[in-house]
Predict the structure.
Amino acid sequence: MNAHNSLDFKALIEARKREISDTRARFSRDTGAVELDQSKVGRLSRMDAMQIQEMNLEAERRRNRELAALDHALNRIENQNYGICSECDEDINPKRLEVDPVALLCINCASKLEQSW
Ligand SMILES: [Zn+2]
């Protein structure tokens, strides 16, 4: 993969990180609102609020995993092994990386792995 492509993916990954951070900032404000309302609402609504909070926590865990994967991808760009399949050392198709910039496997290895499951 040439340097030009790596730079494009760096911008793509950083844009995605910003998106997640923005979502997180909105989410923090939302949770604050739910907690304030809890003192005023009845038992059922409180359970709803708890369920929403549980879902929010799961979404937060997902965001943390995605941020970690994005940071990992940025490290690989720094180390110039970004876009190389961790299974067979072939270049990962840039089209695949555009869809999933944190992909670690080329399409061949990824589909082999799926078949073995
Ligand atoms: Zn591969």
Observations:
- Residues 1-81 form one domain.
- The mean pLDDT is 85.
- The chain has two domains: 1-81, 83-117.
- The helical segments are 3-38, 43-78, 94-99, 107-116.
